[in-house]
Amino acid sequence: MSESTATGADVQAAIRESVAAMLAGTDQDADGFDQTRWEHLARAGFTRLTWPEDGGGAGAGPDLAAAVLVEAGAQAARIPLVEADLATGWLLARTGLRLAETAGPVAAVAADLLEVAARGADVSVRARLRAVPGASTLTAVVAVGDGMVVVLDPIQADVRPGRNLADEDRDELTFDTVVAASQVAEVADTDFVGELRMRSALGRALLLSGALRTALDVATEYAGTRVQFGRPIGAFQAVQQALAASAGEVAAAGSAAGAAANLAARDGFEAGSTQLAIGAAKAHTSEAAGAVAATAHQVLGAIGFTREHRLRRLTTRLWAWRDEDGSEAYWQRVVGHRLISGGPSQLWPALTID
């Protein structure tokens, strides 16, 4: 291991430890945005880790953001870190746009509809955004279209509330408003939507890998303490085999997500190797979510489904996140198409990315 690699690993470990401490004590019975935990992370700079330094961030890469996201997933944190950091920071760096000085949450979202038209010194904007996390808590939302990025104020939106399976806010926002020209960036030759999709998929895979780890920990701990027929249920071979299989899924999913984040930091999101790794990571973490959640609930039985139980908060996120930013089926098709399109000579090199 090189000195630079060791140093990077040490930094990631320190970030994970710090974030875990800040997120500890999360109210497992609450829903909606967790203002307290957001403020803890914001004060430490973890909500804007990848933002450019002149925009109020640390200018860090996705490998360090990965350490934050894995722990956020492990704690089932109710904060929009993927949208606020990994997506928004890159957009600000690429477009030169700036947001108002605030420590509040923001979100970058691909728009179903985004139309702009000059109106003197201002610009009129019509937009429709789906699955926006916690619109009522956001201080800004960055709408992304083909070659177009617009900073919008959520207060000006017509909001249609929505929620995912984990009771996380996923609202639909419709805008028909006017913004200053400085809040609009147009770069026709840049695929903002494509890269946003990749960044969001990576972020979701990292969240999934953290939640998978904790769900397995909860099931393993319960199996070691729950006594049935005179001995812990973890002593039964069937339970041991199920937990061992889940442990393999968790390890593989975590390795895939971590490798994708490291490749993104090294080669950038536009590299074919990075996109293949992200697709494989999201496909694998999404697939593992179903298998590990099923095993965990089989081990705990009915108690794991109760509202106040920690496992419910984890597994509902596993079920929700596995489909967000592309399901396993979607990313398996993407990965398969990329491998086939490269031809036989490129298959082995693609599978053995350094």
Structural features:
Butyryl-CoA Dehydrogenase, subunit A, domain 2, Butyryl-CoA Dehydrogenase, subunit A, domain 3, seven-stranded mixed β-sheet, two-stranded antiparallel sheet, 10 helices
Strand order of the largest sheet: 5-6-2-1-3-4-7
- Element pattern in H and E: HHHHEEEEEEEHEEHHHHH
Structural class: alpha+beta
Helix content: 40-55%
- DSSP summary: helix tally: 10
Tell me, what is the CATH class of the largest domain? Mainly Beta
CATH superfamily of the largest domain: Butyryl-CoA Dehydrogenase, subunit A, domain 2
At CATH level 2, the architecture of the largest domain is Beta Barrel
The structural domain count equals 2
What is the subunit organization of this protein? Answer: single chain
Low-pLDDT windows of residues: none
Q: Rg, please?
A: 21 Å
Q: Please indicate the percent range of residues in DSSP E strands (runs of 2 or more).
A: 15-25%
User: What is the fold named in CATH at topology level of the largest domain?
Assistant: Butyryl-CoA Dehydrogenase, subunit A, domain 2
Mean pLDDT comes to 91
Span from first to last CA?
A: 14 Å
Largest sheet: 7 strands, mixed
Overall 3D shape: globular
Extended strand count: 9
Descriptive notes:
This protein is an alpha+beta fold and 354 residues long. It has two domains: 3-186, Butyryl-CoA Dehydrogenase, subunit A, domain 2 (Beta Barrel), CATH 2.40.110.10; 192-351, Butyryl-CoA Dehydrogenase, subunit A, domain 3 (Up-down Bundle). It contains ten helices and nine strands. The protein has helices spanning 3-23, 35-43, 62-74, 81-95, 192-225, 237-267, 272-300, 310-321, 328-341, 344-351; strands at residues 106-119, 122-132, 140-145, 148-152, 158-160, 171-180, 184-186, 227-228, 231-232. The strands form two sheets. The protein has a seven-stranded mixed sheet. Strands 8-9 form a two-stranded antiparallel sheet. Helix 7 (272-300) packs antiparallel against helix 9 (328-341). The two termini are 14 Å apart.
